[in-house]
Write a structure and sequence with these properties.
3-stranded parallel β-sheet; alpha/beta
């Protein structure tokens, strides 16, 4: 979802699109279609890394395409469900916009702490409130932009399948595809159980 959001942001006219990730393959994939990247395993704060790219430690808008399975920043960081939300509030300027299509759940039995097991996260809502930021949550509002995106795809102005490294697999390959996806590969798998997709 993150790489598709980055490609869409470029289409919508963002002057700079920055993708932050902890997996080298996904960072390389983002760079392959013109995004700036931030390796979240490296030392340094996110505002410092943003400033190195755009000259100031803030951006106009940010997207949380991760959700409740987020991990903290730095090498060996563990599960930290609210880290992306808190980070995007920190680096988005006052009156900026935050898109949150990343999946959050009302309960997660496998969460790291009791609060997260009930869907309660330690987000810095006061920071977002003090900065007068706008939050858009839930599924992407595709009806707002689907016609423009469809026309851009048809006119070859944006290549979402290439941006997300879409790979067609058979139903028999699904278990392997899910395992690879869970490992964090820079690839999205499209199931084609009847062999109807020609690439």
């Amino acid at each position: 979802m993150g790489l598709a959001a980055a490609a869409s942001a470029q289409l919508l006219g963002a002057s700079v699109v920055i993708v932050g990730d902890m997996i080298a393959g996904r960072l390389a994939q983002a760079r392959s279609f013109g995004c700036e990247t931030v390796d979240l395993t490296e030392d340094g704060t996110l505002p410092e890394k943003i400033e190195q790219i755009v000259g100031e430690p803030v951006v106009d808008a940010a997207v949380d395409a991760v959700g409740f399975e987020a991990r903290g920043h730095g090498k060996g960081a563990g599960e930290a469900p609210a880290t992306v939300l808190n980070s995007i509030m920190e680096v988005t300027r006052a009156a900026g916009k935050l898109g949150i299509p990343g999946l959050y759940v009302t309960g997660d039995p496998g969460a790291a702490d009791d609060a997260a097991k009930e869907g309660s996260l330690s987000i810095r809502i006061g920071l977002g409130w003090a900065k007068s930021q706008s939050f858009t949550t839930g599924q992407c509002p595709v009806m707002r932009y689907h016609r423009r995106l469809m026309n851009a795809i048809l006119r070859d102005k944006v290549q979402i399948a290439k941006a997300v490294n879409a790979t067609v697999i058979s139903l028999d390959q699904a278990p392997e595809g899910y395992a690879q996806f869970d490992s964090g590969v820079a690839e999205k798998f499209v199931l084609d159980p009847h062999g109807l997709i020609t690439v």
